[in-house]
């Protein structure tokens, strides 16, 4: 289909970086091998662990993939990356942030809508954000990717119709390093069952995140502002993250991975408003292929349903 070949991938599917290690080497490689681009969840300020994750991923694929580093990307950093053959994808949630990235000449802008799961950086839908960014870019060689609750091929086609060249998604991959209990819960909730909250990162970012409205979250979501995810909270579990033991306290922003023990049901579970359309946890290859095949089918059907007659007026076939 060739929606986003500009960045070296085959089809325009980008794996969202999830959790501290949920988007690990196995999942990133699986997406890359299916023709998409996987983004590693790189550990913050842990150079050796990041290098190991990159090397482990390269053992599993020879296709392009990326690693996520938090922070801004001013033009001098982007230029240095380009000199070393590295392309920069930057996620934004507003037109103002997109303008900065366009000025910095990044290679790709991921336009995240407020309906996305996990950390949310804007307050408008990608449906409103994508076309504005596309218009700002004009004829510059910058790819736009839409992100936020895109869990079926119709969303892929919608993003393309608004000028995006691809989509960024997470949540439902079988190869993710998420705890099985977390994956099971994704099949039980709908978009109405999510909530945008800062409860799980008040001590640090105080930024909104979209989460499943689990019984635990329902109980605590109205907690006073002075209730924070700090050392005063009781220990509810433990995880091995990037080789080190991490103690998990109540309201931690870390999601449960495959090593997590303890009160998994009382831990944060990130998910976007598209979660109600997730009916199964499938392998990455199956998900990518279903999106491509589904999008091609929709576009072909639209082409047969809508046609242009001689005077340039669109006609609709109701047959």
TrEMBL record:
GO terms for molecular function: nitronate monooxygenase activity. InterPro entries: Aldolase_TIM, NMO. Keywords: Flavoprotein, FMN, Oxidoreductase. It comes from the Eukaryota. Signal peptide: none annotated. Transmembrane segments: none annotated. Pfam families: NMO. The keyword Amino-acid biosynthesis does not apply. This is Nitronate monooxygenase domain-containing protein. It comes from Papaver somniferum.
């Amino acid at each position: 289909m060739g929606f986003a070949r500009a960045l070296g991938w085959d089809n325009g599917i980008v794996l969202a970086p999830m959790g501290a290690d949920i988007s690990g080497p196995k999942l990133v490689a699986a997406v890359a091998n299916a023709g998409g681009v996987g983004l590693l969840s790189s550990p913050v300020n842990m150079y050796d662990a990041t290098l190991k994750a990159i090397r482990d991923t390269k053992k599993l694929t020879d296709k392009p993939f990326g690693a996520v580093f938090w922070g801004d990307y001013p033009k001098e950093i982007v230029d240095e990356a380009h000199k070393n053959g590295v392309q920069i994808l930057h996620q934004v949630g507003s037109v103002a942030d997109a303008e900065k990235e366009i000025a910095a000449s990044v290679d790709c802008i991921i336009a995240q809508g407020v309906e996305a799961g996990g950390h949310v950086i804007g307050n408008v839908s990608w449906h409103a954000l994508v076309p504005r960014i596309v218009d700002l870019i004009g004829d510059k060689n910058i790819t736009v990717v839409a992100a936020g609750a895109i869990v079926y091929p119709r969303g892929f086609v919608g993003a393309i119709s608004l000028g995006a060249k691809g989509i960024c998604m997470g949540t439902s991959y079988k190869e993710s390093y998420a705890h099985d209990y977390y994956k099971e819960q994704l099949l039980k909730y709908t978009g109405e069952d999510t909530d945008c909250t800062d409860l799980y990162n008040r001590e640090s970012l105080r930024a909104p995140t979209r989460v499943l409205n689990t019984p635990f979250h329902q109980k605590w979501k109205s907690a006073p502002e002075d209730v924070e995810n700090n050392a005063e909270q009781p220990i509810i579990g433990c995880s091995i993250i990037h080789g080190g033991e991490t103690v998990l306290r109540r309201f931690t922003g870390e999601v449960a991975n495959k090593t997590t023990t303890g009160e998994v049901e009382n831990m944060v579970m990130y998910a976007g408003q598209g979660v109600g359309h997730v009916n199964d946890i499938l392998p990455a290859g199956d998900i990518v292929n279903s999106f491509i095949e589904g999008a091609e089918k929709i576009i072909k059907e639209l082409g047969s349903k809508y046609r242009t007659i001689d005077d340039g007026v669109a006609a609709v076939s109701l047959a």
